[in-house]
Batch of 2 targets.
Target 1
Amino acid sequence: MTAFVARRFLFAVALVFVVSSAALLLTRLAPADVTAELALLAPAEEIARTRARFDLDRRPLEQWGIWLGRAGRFDFGDSYLYNRPVRGLVLDAAANTAVLAVVALAAATAFGIPLGMLAGSRGGLAAAAIRSVSLVCLSLPPLLTSLLLVYVAATTRWFPVGGMTSVGALDARWSTWLADVAAHLPLPALALALPIAATFERLQAQSMTEALHQPFVAAAAARGVAPSDIVVRHAWRVSLRPICGVYGIAIGTLLSGSFVVEFVTAWPGLGRLMYEALRARDIYLVAGCAAMGGLVLAAGMMIGDLLLAAADPRVRERGA
Amino acid sequence: MRRVGLTLVALVLLVALGAPWLAPNPPDRSFPQSLYAPPTAVHLFDGSLRAPFIYQQRLISRLERRFEDDESRRVALRWLSDGRLVTVPEEEGPLLLLGADALGRDIFSRLVYGARASLALALVATLAALVVGAVVGAVAGYAGGVVDDLLSRVTEFVLVLPAMYVALALRAALPLVLPPPAVFALLAVIFALLGWPIVARGVRAIIVSEREREYVAAGHALGAGPWRMLAYHLLPSTTGYLMVQATLLLPAFILAEATLSYVGLGFPDSVPTWGTMLQDAANVSLVGRAPWMLAPAAAIFLVVLGVNLAIQGRGRAPVQLEP
Amino acid sequence: MRLSRLGLILAGAGVLAAAVVVLRFGSSEAPAPPEARRGGQIVASLRSEPRSFNRLVSRDYATEILSLLTQGRLVRINRATFELEPWLAEAWESSVDGRTHTLHLRPDLTWSDGTPFTSADVLFSLQAVFDPRAKSVLASTLTVAGQPITGTAPDAQTVVLNYAGPSGPGVRLLDNLPILPKHKLEAALADGSFASAWTNTTPPSEIVGMGPFVLREYQPGQRVVLDRNPRYWRRARDGGALPYLDRIILDIVPEQNAELLRLQAGDLDLTSSELRPEDYVSVRDAEDQGRLRLIELGVGTDADAFWFCLKPEVKGRDPRFKYVQRPEFRKAISQAVDRQAFADRVFLGAAVPVWGPITPGNIHWFWPDVTRYPHDDRQAQAWLGSMDVHPRRVDGVAADAANVEMRFTVLTQRGISWYERGTAVLREELAKIGIVLDVVPLEVGALIQRLLACDYDAIYYRPIATDLDPAGNMDFWLSSGSAHFWNIGQKTPATDWERRIDTLMFEQAAALDPERRRQQFNLVQQIFAENLPVLYFAAPRLYYAHSMRLRGVVPSVQRPPVLWNADSLSVVN
């Protein structure tokens, strides 16, 4: 077990290192830099000062070395766009994205798994209806869903149209702030969760069907165990394995999907921040976002692997 | 279900192929009197049953986007003329089946031409991903040992990265605005780079299991070289898998193009693709009064749905890997 | 929009009284709206985060708005009437030669933290502007005749400012200078850290000002919260305290679509900029339903500009340049474009045709009698013909005897709908006389880089003038200026007419008589119209919307349209 964790940890470090270095160098080599917009309004010395501030007057490899050195001390430089240290910005944004991703994942699990169990263990109209809805949801990518939901929210005004908090929650206590964020969550979380819930549902339904065909189920039925018990207590655990395998990928999908959703619903998360940073060529912010993204990804994969190990003893034994 | 899916996909393909014929207007033609115009309604009834016709649209106020049908001027639709399926004479008002956009361009025509661009890009990228993935997977699976280890690590690594972020970073690293052919090539390359690991992993698994079979040993005994073995004997056994992967990658790439174009990092606005057309729909208050501007979203949905329906009978549930 | 000559002279005389000996007393009375109720808060939007809370070092729009709300100035130019109003200075006298201005500060004023406000703060602010380590962005604005403005303070209530030369705008220049607290920033200026003194991590209690509001809280990425300043000096007409509002919240909404949605949903009271033409109809619908109030701000003071790079050092070898550099070429383009159709198609009809950089929205400097070239395709072709450039028979593209084609690439900023429409219309109109345009939309950063390097044929863009007074835009008019777009930063004027404009601009910037300034500037406009280095087609009518609960709105055609007068805003429920 320790070997497994150690390997995963090393992988995480490598991932973060490669991803953030690549992002830094890519942005540095890109045409135009952060001072491009300044150029018309500012005198030459202001531009030179800004370039020096972001080490743009040094060679790319040199800048990379400086950044690595500072990163070792957890100093990721400053952001030009927000005029603040990158570390705080990225942590806040990652927290916001994490909130969204966790809620979306929880919603997807809460809807997908039970419905999948239902569709896999029964036949008939219910199963067919669930399957059709799943197929439709699978074909609704977060881009389209979030556009649609924003449109619906704007016309019906049942939900706030975008952002993470609204103005009224300013002087309020924790509980009000929480309620406020909770009101802003359904839109982006739903857009993210729908295709994942559908994936879970389909996978669960299929593996449940397979599990129910296993001999041990027939044996349990012969012993007189109630059908619902069979499904919930016996077959389900077996059917969980493919899902746990997918959980790791789902984290990656969530990160990918969250970019679009954050963009459309103005959720102040990591995806949106990275986009703004890339657009403006805010080099240290890009590197910081990439590093954080890599970290979140690695953490997600670790969790996914642990879940899989918990669900499938074969994985545990083999040491993954 | 499968047949419905296949029909949908075939329909979209046909539309894309026949775009120049199906579109009533050229996609980049802007009609100055028709900015944000609503769809021209096709009527069949005018006191009595007639051949399909439209009323010419008159502009009342540009700022208030008010148009009126001039009921005294009936304009019959012309079929199979000018190299188009259906059209209307030049002077008698444009035929805007889905209205016009901010520059007065016909949305329906842009939609069918957009099918071409989006599908072409997705096809090219899919092909590239398949080729690269198959080669890498085959080499890894056949060679084994260190080569296999190395290639597998690389594959795993790229597989793990969130596709959208990588696409974003790679695209943003180059000049943000490029001429359309350059954008096409660039996006195809980026998508292929993101898609090949999935293919490679599956191909490698198949090759690894096929490698142990007797016919391979026989081939070795007969003196066949490794490339010959791969090309003639082992790779053909992966064709089934490759076809399945192709059907998964295609809608994913269509969506990826739509996303990138939507956030402004894909094709420039002058090129009609579904993604660039969605940019107009970003102005939600505009769309509230003009829901026909969401037509590209419906088109994307239909394609993805069609593909999902078509493959859902093959056992594995399709996993939505790209946004 | 044609103002009568008399009206113009009267308006000009009334407004440009700065350099005349004037004694002005009295409090700046706020026009009390009949239903002004105290209390309440409003929510406005910002397009981007403020880069700093110190207007002296940062020129972005968000910092500008914050400065208007939290800091005070010695005098204020009323953005609706363009008159000069006493503000922190209640009266002033100017010497006859316009080089010495004595300002009398209002007595018994205090900063938002209770410290007394004195002339020492004014001198400190002036010193900070010209401190070499601070590198203030306002330094060039407050430079007269090449020298910084200097000042002395004979006593705590009086400031004497010395200009190195006569200045046309005179005391009006001081509208640009927010007065900063000496007791808070003195140390930073002394040790050289002034440029990073008031950043967005500074605790709000440090940011002290004489404005109607004080910074209460800054939530990065989300909003800036401002509370009313209980020690604000201005009083309402009935003697009551200002501002009426208890709080202003500035929400950061980077995207204009989202901003509009929030406005319509009632989450915002005010937006940061005027409406786009395509948004007019949905706001109009909202007005009909009683959710918003739609107002017309007036004709915008900036119009979209189209110009070719005329730098001989870079373009000299280009065979097309010998035609481009001649005024006949630009006149041909000017006459080939039907400006009314341009206004209709690009701004959906909500625009007025213009022929020069000063639009009718700039009421005091617009001269309707400038030479205009009417729409006439035949005359346009004749202009080209006079240079021996004719449309080719085979494809209609204009070319000269050596078959050099009149084909140009036009750079513009991507993502702006009226730039797209504008370039599309230009392309169509110019195709009629054989000039072919290839439009290339670029990101604004790339666009500006190429603009500065003269790495383009033509550009279509709307540069925003910072000041309505031409003396505040010397960078654009002077051939050596950094915003003289068609040929930036010339060491000596490349053409004779640019030399004449340079001379006239220096004269009018130093002339004390407003009528003389106007005459000279009219001459400048005439020279500009005869040589057409930049072409203008239409200036948009600006529309704006705010929530129904807002009162005391005095709209201005400059930005910010409503918040410039924040101390007189109130809400009803």
Note: The radius of gyration of chain A is 24 Å.
Target 2
Amino acid sequence: MATFNFELSTLPPEAEALRDEVRTFLKQELAQFRPEERARSWGGFNRDFSRRMGERGWIGMTWPKKYGGHERTALERYVVLEETLAAGAPVSAHWVADRQSGPLLLRFGTEEQRQRFLPRIARGEFAFAIGMSEPDSGSDLASVRTRAEKVAGGYKVNGTKIWTSNAHLSDYAIALFRTKVVPDKKHEGLSQFLVDLKSPGISIRPIIDLAGGHHFNEVHFQDCLVPDDMLVGKDGEGWKQVTTELGFERSGPERYLSSLQLVIELIREAGKEPPERAAALIGHFTAHLVTLRQMSLSIATMLQAGQNPNLEAAVMKDIGTTFEQEIPEAVHALTGAEPRIGSGTEFEKTLGYLVQHAPSFSLRGGTREVLRGIIARGLGLR
Amino acid sequence: MNELQTILAETCTRLFTDHATTAVLEGAEKGEWPAALWQALEENGLTLPQVPEARGGAGGSWNDAFVVLMAAGRFAAPVPLAETILAGSILAEAGLDAPLGPMTVAPAHIDEGLALARQGGGWALTGRATRVPWGARAEHVVVVADGGGAPMIALVTAGTAKIEADASLAREPRDTLTWSGAPVVAAAPLRGRLGRQPVWAGGALVRSAQMAGGLEFLLAQSVKYVTERKQFGRPLAAFQAIQQNLALLAGHTAAAGMAAQQAFHIVERTGEGGDASFEIAVAKVRTGEAASLGAGIAHQAHGAIGFTYEHSLHFVTRRLWSWRAEFGAENHWSVALGRQVAARGAESLWPHMTER
């Protein structure tokens, strides 16, 4: 029998019905967007855009209405996700909260936390960051050392988080701290907290990426008091919670669409009757895009049905990110076009953006090596 | 898969486990016909799974055919099952009855053409077709031929052709058939869901399912081998380099299965005159690419033993190397696909992907 459970799935009519509505909205919103801007994919941060998405009910779509959600299906949400990504909309101001922080609070948060945060996330008003990695804890996340020490009224936090995307633009972060040191048991004694990024004792320093962009930060905590009511879930249960949270981010359409804009620009550049080599590359890209979309859709359908397709999600992310990373290299090999910044054609600038950003595709949300380790475990090799 | 397809898959697994043994595979490479295997396939209605009962088939769907062909690929079944399934459906789509027994299709290459001419009240077939799979073994051949300016489907008995025998890498027959005014059993104007080139497109379709099945075998066999084989005092599976490679094989296997499954689904959903050429091209490109990478990884994981005739890995890898080139290799279908996409224009790529 097959090793995997990738069933074909077709989106139900209510999900398909949303597609035109989303496309019409995005067409107006992004009328002035250039291809290079669209290539930023889920990197673009625009609070006004996120608020308008919230007004349409497209954030927190699956959450209960009593928390400001819209009680729609995961497949309806999938259509909104894939359409915004395919259009290259600037989703970053609500992306993390919609995908991870909100679902985490729904699962593990207190009733008071849900009422306080979820409605404003769903309105596109609260932007979230994720405080996981530290200077000495990257792939080995369980080795985090930032301490949250129990004091009267809360926890006193000391330490440093790193690679914290959009911390300088966001309102809150959900961070993983060590509340207890258990010798030789690094997975124990971890806890998750909601952190108000404007709190005293927090300083945020930019880390500029290789392309000159600022989304990464180093977030330093010095005797920062996090109140008791900001603990998420149980004290000491942080590892279990955080692995659940990472599962939320593994299999979505963002794992194969990051370079879609360059495929579109290549087709435009090649014209209606492309030479053979260009046609072959466009065909190769199309074959992969179509297949990856089916796999991603299949996983979304399993999630909707309450199944737990962890192995399938890891497999899809591995081949999806490998594919989106391959695109700028293959376009370079075909065209020899110079990747450009600032000047040049839209094709050259889109290539310039993606050549520089592609290395991150197989790092973010867990490196390729960690992911393949997860797949190997699923295959029974470890 | 629905419940019936799960049962179908189990039936296939059982049947091939019993009848597509290593001894049978080795015998087939020496030219022995696996009669018991073929008989079991026919008795279980697996040779014409999606042909309507009224036309001699089992009355199932193309999705059923996918399940059967995946299994056939997984077991490297040394019979013209894919060819018979394709031939039967081309006949049925054209309104002709499918006979029992092994069949094949011709011409197997897009550059070759056959011609039908009126002869008395019927038709006579003339022309040469190379690399016809199982050409000398099949009892009937379903051909696409030009019938005086209009494309026709015709059924001929195998004895009507002059045969030059040849073989594929997997020692499966790939014969040249030459007809010179041969009488045909039945003929009808070409129609059906596989389009204007049903042998070429349908051949690519069935090969994609066989390759997806072959990759499933490579993955399962590689996992088994690295778990059992020990070096440096521990199983090969304990080495990260091995784990990483097999994870990659898993990804390509999953993608191949998805692409092929999708193509069969669209062919099933597409009625007569529909067009599944987009998904068929996707499937042949994706499974072909996966076959290349997958065969390499599986052999690397198996080391020297996998390179021997004694080990059964090669029954599948040699088929993958042969199948990926048949009925259009990746380069053929990716160019066709790329031209189709380019003609629709850059802005239509995403809308087209989502409306299928």
Note: Chain A touches chain B through 57 residues (CB under 8 Å).
